[in-house]
Write a structure and sequence with these properties.
The chain has 127 residues and is α/β, with parallel strands linked by helices. The chain contains two helices and eight strands, in the order E-H-E-E-E-E-H-E-E-E. The chain has two domains: 52 residues, 2,3-Dihydroxybiphenyl 1,2-Dioxygenase, domain 1 (Roll); 61 residues, 2,3-Dihydroxybiphenyl 1,2-Dioxygenase, domain 1, CATH 3.10.180. Helices cover 17% and strands 36% of the residues. The radius of gyration is 15 Å and the shape is globular. InterPro entries: Glyas_Bleomycin-R_OHBP_Dase, Glyoxalase_6, VOC_core. Pfam families: Glyoxalase_6.
């Protein structure tokens, strides 16, 4: 079994600049012009271009928006070099909303959002 998460982005090239170029995820497939698959450790992340203001599902009254929003699903990046990864993400447009240094049996963790308003966490190793 493989695991994959797909993320809506307003423009595919903007999503690739963040997830592929800044975070270092490798592009492994582009089955259509508006969807790309990225390798993320043992998992995959799909980026799909969906314009702001479009409906997320037929019959929905909601619309896609790309300012910061809450979602019950987010990605956790477990990384070896916490500070370097976090700095690259922030310099590429992510926002670090809260950061805990860790210590003892707790790893460092940062609660963040990508440039498109999607939440994610960065977790480093236990010191």
């Amino acid at each position: 079994m493989k695991y994959s998460v797909s993320i809506d982005v307003p423009l595919l090239e903007d999503g690739l600049r963040f997830y592929r170029d800044a975070l270092g995820l490798a592009e492994i497939a582009r089955p259509v012009a508006t969807y790309v698959t990225l390798k993320c450790g043992d998992s995959q992340i799909g980026l799909i271009e969906k314009s702001a203001g479009s409906k997320p599902a037929e019959g929905s009254d909601d619309i896609r928006r790309y300012e910061r929003h809450w979602t019950p699903v987010h990605i956790d990046f477990h990384v070896d070099d916490f500070e370097t990864f976090l700095a690259k993400a922030v310099s590429a447009g992510a926002k670090c909303e809260r950061k805990f240094e860790g210590g003892g049996a707790r790893p460092p963790i940062a609660f963040c959002s990508d440039p498109f308003g999607n939440g994610f966490c960065v977790t480093g190793p236990i010191a």
